[in-house]
Write a structure and sequence with these properties.
The protein has 323 residues and is α/β, with parallel strands linked by helices. The protein has three domains: 82 residues, Orthogonal Bundle (Arc Repressor Mutant, subunit A); 112 residues, D-Maltodextrin-Binding Protein, domain 2 (3-Layer(aba) Sandwich), CATH 3.40.190; 113 residues, 3-Layer(aba) Sandwich (D-Maltodextrin-Binding Protein, domain 2), CATH 3.40.190. Helices cover 47% and strands 21% of the residues. It is built from eleven helices and 13 strands. The strands form four sheets. The protein has a five-stranded mixed sheet with strand order 4-3-5-13-6, with helices on both faces. A four-stranded mixed sheet has the order 8-12-7-11. Strands 1-2 form a two-stranded antiparallel ribbon. The chain starts with a helix and ends with a helix.
Length: 323
Amino acid sequence: MMNMHKLFLYAAEEENFTKAAKRAFVTQQCLSNNIKQLEKEMNVSLFTRTPHLQITSAGKMLYETLKKIELLERDLETRLELVRSESMGSIHLGINASRGIVLLPDLFKMYQEKYPNVKIAVTMEDNVYLEQMMLDNRLDIFLGVNFQGNEMLDSEIVSKDTPMLLATSGFMDLWARDAIEGDYIFGDIIDLHKYLGLPLVGNRVSSTFSALCERYLAYHDIEYRKSLFVSDYGTQIELCGKSLAAAFIPQSILELVERYNKLAGENEKLIAFRLKDFEEAVVLSIVKPKYRQVPKYLKDFIDILKSEIMRKDQYIHSVRGRG
């Protein structure tokens, strides 16, 4: 705001040039000259001087307008300060749906407490699509699944996600070759050769994770059949709980299984099994552009994402072997 306008505001608020001049740390003559110059430029009288100083209707209009401008300028300065301190901006995150469901609620809560002025947009897609989005400058960061590397991108491995088999105890007994009921415990290692033609619910669209599981089944010549196809893990959990199928799940969604079991009936409780000779794992990496400056709010977002993944991993390891 121009200095002339500030002097006018003081005069309008004090309705006394002497008091306004003292408030502005200028002489009364200086303030009076500025007011006269403003009146000349606007071609209106802003004050009546006799019998005492009083603001005119034109002066009131100018006062209201300048106060709005003053508020806007203060808001702008506040936002600029946030930008200068790298506390304001936007983040476009890419992640696949299964890990998004587990990671995003707690991640957003922690991050928004620290950076309430940063806007976050999320795209949930498979790895190949997210990589192309980043190369097209449409993503700031994504959680890569078995990311193969690109000379334009930086990546950091943050976790390894081992596949598990999800099913009810009764369902596994039904399909056991020897027809002997098992005393199953969450985290047990099982050999799928002992389960003849085990029905599996499969992802509707091929993904990095489902391809890994298919390779395992083919390599070990394991008999199975797929009659249900749905890509949503929440629905797969429900289907498994009804003993309609078993499903391969990434261990990163065990928290969803735990939540389901707390509400499920005794016969619908699910067990997550480790698989004999399943040596491969899904590698999770944080991927970002190599030649782009990373603001502080994004660096902190990455740190919080890594800490949240680590916390989930610790939880998973505690659950895997729990009976």
